[in-house]
Amino acid sequence: MKERYTQARGGNEDLGGTQMGKINSHNCNLNIWYFLPDEVWNKVSNIYESMPGWIGYKNGIPCWFGMEDDEIYIQASVEPSGLSFNGQMNNSDWNSWIEKFKFEATIVLGFDVGEPEDGFN
Q: pTM of the prediction?
């Protein structure tokens, strides 16, 4: 699992060392709403697959780097409150990954993607 993570990041970082920082839990809710048409969700699916660490759908859940019982993972789910991500990794890698997702989604979907609490509708 650690090898898959470092390969996806393009480096040889030591996940347990100080280079990578402390592993924390993270959550993010985005303004990609469950009621959007299938055309939008098909595009979201393509974004999923283009993101670093993509390992596929496990039990219908999009996963990157690992599963919930692994040390490092990101998972997504569609909730009434929007597209929700949860994961476990260091702060720097999480921030980089989720910002990349927001950036790519904004381009592909054609609207500003962000967190509703930050004013994104």
A: 0.82
